[in-house]
Amino acid sequence: MWFFFFFFQAEDGIRDFCLSRGLGDVYKRQVLDGQQRITSIGRFITGKFAIKNEADNVQYFSGLPEEQQQKIMQSSLLVYECEGEEKEIKEWFKTINIVGIPLKEQELLNAIYSGEFVNAAKRVFSNSQNAEIQKWNHYIKGDVKRQDYLAEALRWICDSKGMSIDAYMSIHRHEPSTGELEGYFRSVIDWVSTTFTMVERDMCGLEWGRLYETYHTTPYSTVHVTERVKALQADESLSLIHISEPTRQAEISYAVFCLKKKKKKNDTNKKKTIKKK
After folding, report:
1. Has this prediction a pTM greater than 0.70?
2. Is 250 left (phi over 0), alpha (psi -120 to 50) or beta?
3. Cβ distance 42 to 77 under 8 Å?
4. How do the pLDDT tens digits run along the chain, 277 residues long?
5. Rounded to whole angstroms, what are the CA distances from 6 to 45, 77, 105, 202?
6. DSSP letter (8 states) at residue 82
7. Integer angstrom CA distances of residue 269 from 262, 263, 272
């Protein structure tokens, strides 16, 4: 027998996925916890992926015997429907997820401001199947599934507006589109990738949002940026920390890398002075 526990936020009548009397009896509510389980069930039933049976054979839902299909569709799931203020919702979410890996701040914010905006944002920034992630991971640290990319996208646009992430998510909570968020995020990424044609591991996790806001209106010569970076990297007495403030030299602008001197290792091969008797 299957046991599933789902928590639904029913304040303001938003209807988005709920399973109450059985899988075949679906009406909508806003999911507070259990989104991945519900999505997995829905994707399996609609033929998006297959499972393997006891004999290790691949089985899609449509290929299951009729009685097994009906058993799945008529299975009852345990659902808790909750109503409360945002502060209460945050505490419920913490309690539900008290066991296991500690929650990240963005995961809590997603629960507090759950709605159309969060769902749309997660389809872009929390989707490991998104082909753009391969490009983004050169510049952003973290785990897509743990909401790190969404958190960074929100941080960038909120810093540019001088507002908190909480406020931004609250304002846009019931909007079905994340066009502004996606547009700004891609503008930052495009600026970075065109200004710095090389991709270095040191570039991952830098304050690209701040750098974009400060310098994206200034034209830079990618040729000189590349040459300067290579020259600095070739200097063995220096090590790259992070990209910092661009400077202007003559009429050419280019980024200057923040550097520090490497610690000189003690020469273990120095000859020891032997006192003669």
Report:
1. no
2. left
3. no
4. 333 344 444 333 323 333 333 443 434 566 666 767 777 888 888 888 888 878 888 989 999 889 989 988 888 777 777 777 767 776 777 676 666 677 888 988 888 888 899 999 999 999 988 999 999 999 999 999 899 999 999 999 999 999 999 999 999 999 999 999 999 999 999 999 998 888 888 788 889 999 999 989 988 888 888 887 777 777 766 554 444 444 444 333 334 444 444 445 554 444 444 444 4
5. 18, 8, 21, 42
6. E
7. 19, 17, 9
